[in-house]
């Protein structure tokens, strides 16, 4: 009886937190508002291009653009993705086995599913044919093909999406192998977070231990955001009866449970997850990917709505506080390999916009 009362009280408190979060912020959760904010951020970013179009940064951005197209159903967005693909000749980046150079191909497959033009995915197929027969050179910190956690957003969604699209499970099997290698190398089973690479692992004898100022392990917010975004994109595509699906679900749920405990009072996450005081500004790209991943979990029944909805709503309010008057997504940490990069309201990057667009594409579904 006492346990039932305690459970009821906990649910009531969470429901109250959700209602309190919405009070005064109702507009932020209206479909028209969300669409307008997504359109404003997208328009600003398309008018301020950055990096080579096949770059991993644009891979993340155009993943958001594809989500915006599905949400806004605007023909001009379709044309923007098509123009990007044409400019890239629908090809991955030049590095055969580097996950970053495949991230942009997520959008190629999305376009192929709409337009049905095989040329949109043929260069990807050709590259992966070579990839699968080319031995990977293991050296230094490169302990496996995907030796840094960000890779789990870049390539796994491409392999799984292509495999399902072509009904060819060789790509799904390749993803299982390479994803598991990265998991075994970098996933901290106590913290339920990923080290960026082995330089940030405490149990790696070959490297010197790097700690945060407060003595905690270094877990980079954006890096773990990439992973959660990648897990969502894998689970979106992976067949329900795929033999290893339970592994991805468990990894996703463990990370979700840990991430919500690290959310800060403003609804955002700090650049270093375990040392928020050293990086006081809420960081847009990591926070955007968490908002996207958690909202998707609610929308698809993997996460308990009573528990996670207040977190997601608080995060969405926080994310909107980072949008500048011209539509630009501010407070985005610059490119780097760890949290130690300063950023401000003036800091922007294309992947920050991509994360915001992905988040909006799931937030808008919460009331459906």
Any overview of this molecule?
This is Glycoside hydrolase family 88 protein. It comes from Mariniphaga sediminis. It holds the Pfam family Glyco_hydro_88. InterPro entries: 6-hairpin_glycosidase_sf, 6hp_glycosidase-like_sf, Glyco_hydro_88, PolySaccharide_Degr_Enz. Keywords: Hydrolase, Signal. The protein is mainly α. The chain has a single domain, classed as Alpha/alpha barrel (Glycosyltransferase), CATH 1.50.10. It has a two-stranded antiparallel ribbon with strand order 1-2. The longest helix has 21 residues. It starts with a helix and ends in a 5-residue tail after the last helix.
Write the layout of secondary structure elements.
Blueprint: H1 2-22, H2 31-46, H3 56-72, H4 75-87, H5 105-115, H6 122-133, H7 151-154, H8 156-166, H9 170-186, E1 187-188, E2 193-194, H10 221-237, H11 245-260, H12 284-299, H13 305-320, H14 350-363
Describe the structure in brief.
With 368 residues, the protein is mostly helical.
State the main characteristics:
PolySaccharide_Degr_Enz, mainly alpha, 368 residues, disordered N terminus, Glycosyltransferase, 14 helices, 55% helix
């Amino acid at each position: 009886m006492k346990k039932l009362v305690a459970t009821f009280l906990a649910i009531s408190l969470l429901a109250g937190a959700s209602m309190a979060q919405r009070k005064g912020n109702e507009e932020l959760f209206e479909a028209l508002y969300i669409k307008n904010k997504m359109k404003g951020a997208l328009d600003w970013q398309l008018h301020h291009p950055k990096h080579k179009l096949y770059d991993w940064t644009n891979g993340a951005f155009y993943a958001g653009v594809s989500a915006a197209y599905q949400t806004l159903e605007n023909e001009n967005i379709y044309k923007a993705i098509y123009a990007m693909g044409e400019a890239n000749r629908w090809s991955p980046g030049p590095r055969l086995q580097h996950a970053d150079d495949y991230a942009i191909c997520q959008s190629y497959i999305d376009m192929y599913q709409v337009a049905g033009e095989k040329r949109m995915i043929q260069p990807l197929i050709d590259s992966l044919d070579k990839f699968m027969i080319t031995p990977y050179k293991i050296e230094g910190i490169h302990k496996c093909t995907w030796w840094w956690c960000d890779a789990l957003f870049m390539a796994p969604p491409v392999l799984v999406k292509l495999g399902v699209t072509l009904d060819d499970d060789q790509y799904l099997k390749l993803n299982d192998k390479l994803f598991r290698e990265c998991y075994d190398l970098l996933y901290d089973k106590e913290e339920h977070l990923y080290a960026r690479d082995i330089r940030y692992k405490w149990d790696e004898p070959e490297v010197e231990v790097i700690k945060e100022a407060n003595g905690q392990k270094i877990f980079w917010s954006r890096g773990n955001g990439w992973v959660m975004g990648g897990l969502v994109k894998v689970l979106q595509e992976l067949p329900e009866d795929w033999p290893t699906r339970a592994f991805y679900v468990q990894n996703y749920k463990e990370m979700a449970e840990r991430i919500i405990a690290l959310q800060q009072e403003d609804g955002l996450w700090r650049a270093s997850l375990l040392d928020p005081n050293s990086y006081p500004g809420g960081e847009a790209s990591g926070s955007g990917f968490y908002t996207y991943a958690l909202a998707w979990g609610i929308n698809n029944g993997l996460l308990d709505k009573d528990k996670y909805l207040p977190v997601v709503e608080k995060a969405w309010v926080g994310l909107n506080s980072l949008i500048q008057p011209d539509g630009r997504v501010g407070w985005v940490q610059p490119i780097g390999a760890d949290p130690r990069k300063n950023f401000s309201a003036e800091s922007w990057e294309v992947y920050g916009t991509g994360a915001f667009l992905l988040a909006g594409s799931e937030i808008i579904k919460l009331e459906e």
